[in-house]
Amino acid sequence: MNAAYPPQPDAPSHSMRKHLGRFHFNFAVTVSIICILATLLLHSLVQMQSGVDKIIHDTELNNLRLSLAESWVHRQASFQTVDSKALANTNPMRLISEPPNNYIGEKTTPPANQDKIWYFDIIKKELVYVYSGGKEARYVLVSTIQNAEVSYLSMGGLDLIPVPNQ
Is pLDDT above 80 for 63? Predict the structure, then answer.
């Protein structure tokens, strides 16, 4: 008998070490699969959020166009003249009775760290919507009398048309 090396009851046997190795491998594979699925889920949520932002923007834009049309109808019904050429390139928010809640006014510089807002760029004479992430959509109020590029909601010779990206 070898008294210098007594058997240790706590030492794992060869089969136990093999089982622990499989357990760690299975755990690592499971964690990796969960991480991949979580990444795919987050990517899908980001895409869905940008889709929701686009829908919100489009809805607000259509509401603005309808408000412009309503303003034109109201002026016509009260026998006020509307010079759509003179109103072109002005702030459309001045023509409607209720601007959207996220309209922050007329600005000379883009507002910092704000998104999902509307503002009127005084220098470029453009209505601007800022998406999440800082991307902008710009619109100009134009006279539609001699303009073929108008929306279906255009009425009274005024419309908001997108400004091409510069």
Answer: yes
> By C-alpha distance, which of 120, 58, 115, 121 is closest to 95?
120
Look at residue 12 and tell me if it is in a domain: no
Paired tokens of 77: 């019904």
Separation of alpha carbons 50 and 39, rounded Å = 17
- State pLDDT tens for residues 110-153: 888 888 899 999 999 999 999 888 889 999 888 776 555 555 55
> 71 with 84: CB under 8 angstroms?
no
* 117 within domain boundaries: yes
Residue 1: inside a domain, yes or no?
no
Unique residue bearing structure tokens 């932002």: 53
Burial 129-158 (b: 16+ CB within 10 A, else e): bbbeeeeebbbbbbbbeeeeebeebbbbbb
pTM (predicted TM-score): 0.68
Q: Which residues pair with 128 in a beta bridge?
A: 119, 138
